[in-house]
Structures are given as structure tokens and as C-alpha cells.
């Protein structure tokens, strides 16, 4: 049987550390760039007996703003629960999380339905030293951690990667998380199952297969590769007549394959119960400001309406530096659509880094008015990039402005026609440009030549 006859279903669980000033339940500093171990700690995040946690309101607000952005249902009532398990990176023997009453329910992002978004505290970081020893750095313990869970509706590795990238982008736009995967600030877990497709009508209906969770994927490449590998692995198991085992697996980057870690836990294994040290929250009473900025998909739509190509729009949406620069140039150009499209073409093809927006806009204006040719514009931009300066002055000093005076060009057109009476128009345009040392405005030259031909 071909692999195409099996249906892949993926649900994602994504954790992102929020960039609040302090940790989730204490006033220890939230600093992901701290390299000294066990500096940002206190009795609360270290789990000392007798300590009492205090809820970080800014972390609550951050998750609610995300929920508003994805059009999820924001909770009116919420509470925190204790998720009980024993591991060296959990100093209390439990993690404070949310179970029955998440902050956000439902919603949609990048065409993927969401189940929930909730808030919990991060664990400490385990460092496996050379030899048999492991060390624990508690700087990360207690940092606000957002967890987003999707519905099991993703059907390809590519779509899973697309979703994860779009979430990272949204977190950046909302300014609630850096979500740098290389630093572990965003971690992806994929719940993957494989089942037979309905071969008679080639539909994708039918029961889901056995779920296998692949944990702690720390790059977009790893997300895609792990899902693709697990899809093929489970198909081979089913083809051999065996059953897929429900379990938690890890990802080996060096071998590009998953490996078994442990049997998959169920929610009852964690013995959730409401944390008695934390108050119940009624969200409306807290009067949060949930104002949203322009969101990534809104910006895409706006740019496309301006006539900007999808490729260029994606650059401006995903790269804040270039996106901000384009907006600055657009304000200088006054919203002229044709000029904006022209500006975008030059930004993406000629600039290695942003230059003065006012001078760049002046170059675009000179191109549009016929004062600068494409070749001349590139020369001016190159000089500005290397030495800065005023665009018009540079064009004048370097003899780069086009000759657009119809009277001057008319005389040269007459000379060229007398020398090449039967030549085609494109050839004649080239000859006029050659006689002017490359300065003749080709549009005006062509107009003059056509007028001569019509008059006979």
C-alpha cells in the first residue's frame, strides 16, 4: 500500500515564555539573557515551604490580548491548578498551571482551529554535564509560560511549520514574547497520528489513529522533519500489521529521527486540583486594557491592497526593520500607489540596508517624473548608501539626470532619422540615447519618433 493512502493528523501544543518584568508568582527578575546560574531566584520560585505565590497581572493581560487577536472566547472566571509530578526541575513537586478554566477557549490562527490558551509557570533548566552529573539552573523556574493547544486538524508538516511561524510572528507583534526558539523561549510539541484514508471516495474522514507526542522541538526545521519522520514510521508499523503505541518521543537532531522516551501520561496522571494558595479570578473585575496593534494578517491585506506583491508584503510583515522602513518611505511619498509599488521594487532589489527615507523617496519621485533612468537611480542609491547625501544634488553633480527637454531631444531625433530612415523604432531610440551619452529620456524619445513616423 502507498503512503498516500494513509492520513496524517497533527495537533500542536506550543509553549512560549512571556517577557514580563518579573516571574509568574514572585518578584524575581524575568531575564532570559542571564548567563549566571541561579541568580534570579527567591524562596517562592525555589519552592521553599511556607511561601505564598502572587499572580502576575501583566502575564494574565498578555494571554488575554493573544486570545482577543485570535478571536477566542475570553474567560470571565479562571483559576490556577496544581499539576503534580516529580522531576528535578520542579522544586515544589508540582507545577502551577490551568486545567478546567483556561484564560482563552477556541479561536483560530492561520486557518487552524484552537482548543485553548492557558497560563502556567515554566520549569527550571536541566544541564547535563560531562560524566554522570546533571545540574539545575533555577533562573527559568517560575517564568510566565503561555501554552497554546490546537485542534487536531493539521494535515501536513508544512502546515504545522506555517502555523508555528505565524504564532511566533503574532507574539512579536503583540510584544508579549520574543519566542526565540534557539534560546528555548518557544517550544513546540506535536501530537501525531496516522490512519487509513477512505480509498473509495478519497475522503479524509474516519477515526484518528493512535496519538504519539513528540516533545520539545526547538526549531521550525525540527518541527517539519519530526512530523515527516513520524508519519513514515507509523505508516511502516501499520503496514506490517502491528499497532502504534501511544507514547512520548523525543527528536534526535543528529540522526533526524524520533526516539521513545516514556509512556504517554493522561490528564488524570497529574492529579490536577485547584491551587489553594491562589485566588479565583473574575476577569471583568480587573479592567484589563486589551488594545491590539495592527496584526500580521491585517498588515498583509493592507499592503496587497496597495498593489504590493505578495512576496514583498511578506518581507515587510515578517521583517520589522524593512516593514518600518517601507512605512516611512510610504509616508514620504504621500500614498501614491504607483510610486509605492515602484519604491517596493527598488527597496527589495537595490538596498542592502535602509538609507534616509526622505532621500530614497526623492529618488522614486525623480524616476516617476522621468528625471532619472533606472540606471541613474541605481547609481544615486549606491552613492547614498556609501556616503549619504541629498539625492537630487548627487544626481546633478554626477551628471545622472535624464534629458527630458523636448526641444533639445527633437534636434537629436532629426539627426538620427536622417542617418537611419528605415530603421525600427527601438533601434532609433537606442541611437538617440547613445548620442546623448545615455541621458535621453527614452519615453519622450519614443513619443517624438512616433510623431515623426505618423507625419511621414
UniProtKB/TrEMBL annotation:
Keywords: ATP-binding, Ligase, Nucleotide-binding, Protein biosynthesis. One of its GO terms (molecular function) is ATP binding. Residues 324-453 form the Asn/Gln amidotransferase domain. GO terms for biological process: translation. Its EC number is 6.3.5.-. It is an enzyme of class 6 (ligase). Pfam families: GatB_N, GatB_Yqey. InterPro entries: Asn/Gln-tRNA_amidoTrfase_suB/E, Asn/Gln-tRNA_Trfase_suB/E_cat, Asn/Gln_amidotransferase, Asn/Gln_tRNA_amidoTrase-B-like, GatB, GatB_Yqey_C_2, Gln-tRNA_amidoTrfase_suB_CS, Gln_synth/guanido_kin_cat_dom. The keyword Transcription does not apply. It catalyses: L-glutamyl-tRNA(Gln) + L-glutamine + ATP + H2O = L-glutaminyl-tRNA(Gln) + L-glutamate + ADP + phosphate + H(+); L-aspartyl-tRNA(Asn) + L-glutamine + ATP + H2O = L-asparaginyl-tRNA(Asn) + L-glutamate + ADP + phosphate + 2 H(+). The keyword Calcium does not apply. Heterotrimer of A, B and C subunits. Belongs to the GatB/GatE family. GatB subfamily. Allows the formation of correctly charged Asn-tRNA(Asn) or Gln-tRNA(Gln) through the transamidation of misacylated Asp-tRNA(Asn) or Glu-tRNA(Gln) in organisms which lack either or both of asparaginyl-tRNA or glutaminyl-tRNA synthetases. The reaction takes place in the presence of glutamine and ATP through an activated phospho-Asp-tRNA(Asn) or phospho-Glu-tRNA(Gln). This is Aspartyl/glutamyl-tRNA(Asn/Gln) amidotransferase subunit B.
